[in-house]
Amino acid sequence: MCIGGGQVFATALPHATRLVITHIKHIFEPGDQPVYFPPISADAWREERRLDHAVDDRHAWPFTFVEYVPRVEEQPEV
Known about the structure:
The chain is mainly beta. It is built from 1 helix and 3 strands, in the order αβββ.
């Protein structure tokens, strides 16, 4: 598990076997200092699960939990 800042995420990404990322549907203002995950390559990762969450009394912005798993190239049978 890796919980950290953008540089920590970038360093750990090549070693990841699964990604669970929260996508917050909000545009942050300069000075808010949000942490951004490095871009995810659609060639390397595929979405496996998605859970959308609306605004409610505990959450100011809508968000989505997305689980990504590595794309595995199919090996030819020998």
